[in-house]
Amino acid sequence: MQLFMANAKASLAGDPLLAVADAIKWEEVERHMQADYWQAMFRKGGRTPYDYRSMLRALLLARWFGLSYPKMERALRVRLDFMLFCGFVIGNKMPDASTLNRFNSKMEKSGVLSAMFDEVELQLGNQGIKVLPARGALFEVGINRAGPGLAICKAP
Q1: Can you say how many angstroms the Cα of residue 120 is from the centroid of all Cα atoms in its chain?
Q2: Inter-residue contact 124 to 34 (CB < 8 Å)
Q3: What is the average pLDDT across 107-133?
Q4: Is 87 helix (H, G, I), strand (E, B) or coil?
Q5: Is the pTM of this model over 0.90?
């Protein structure tokens, strides 16, 4: 499976979404989270939780693409670029809509979610990258190099 994922990532070289993922300094985003606290919080019995970093990235995609959690659940299963952006692996279990919703609720309640989203937007803005909202996960995204920066926008 690792070979497949490596080949998939190589075949998607230059993909706008993966370029955005590479442009973000995730450790700067995660410092808002106090990772030890959150890892402990999500390990209160039951099965092993999904990686909080992957879950945060899934919430970012849902926001950027205007997806409900059921639609995000589906997109994670059918869009290779979404899986790679989030760090999920084909063949492994993916979060369902209720898991995404619960994670979002806990993050919002703690107040860190907006700070993390703001950090992502700040970093991208400082690099001249603007993510324009898309309307659905099945629309393709394109790069618009108008000016000194890079803009991610919905293709026609």
Answers
A1: 11
A2: no
A3: 88
A4: coil
A5: no
For the purposes of burial, counting CB atoms within 10 Å of the CB of 96, is it exposed (0-12), middle (13-18) or buried (19 or more)? middle
Backbone angles phi, psi at 53, to 5 degrees: -65, -45
Q: Across all residues in the chain, what is the average pLDDT?
A: 79
Q: Which helix (H) or strand (E) holds 79?
A: none
| Residue 76 structure tokens | 């994670």
Which structural domain range is residue 56 located in?
2-154
Return the pLDDT at 133. Answer: 73
Q: What's the pLDDT at 15? A: 81
- Identify whether the C-beta of residue 98 lies closer than 8 Å to the C-beta of residue 105: no
Q: Report residue 21 as tokens.
A: 């993922």
Q: Name every residue whose Cβ is closer than 8 Å to that of residue 112 and which is 6 or more positions away in sequence.
A: 32, 33, 34
Residues listed for the chain? 156
- HSE at residue 124, side-chain half, CA atoms within 13 A, is 22
Residue 85 has pLDDT above 80, yes or no: yes
User: Angle of helix 16-23 relative to helix 112-126, nearest 10 degrees?
Assistant: 100
- pLDDT-based confidence at residue 44 (cuts at 50, 70, 90): low
Tokens 């618009």 map to which residue? Answer: 144
CA dist 113 and 107 (Å) reads: 5
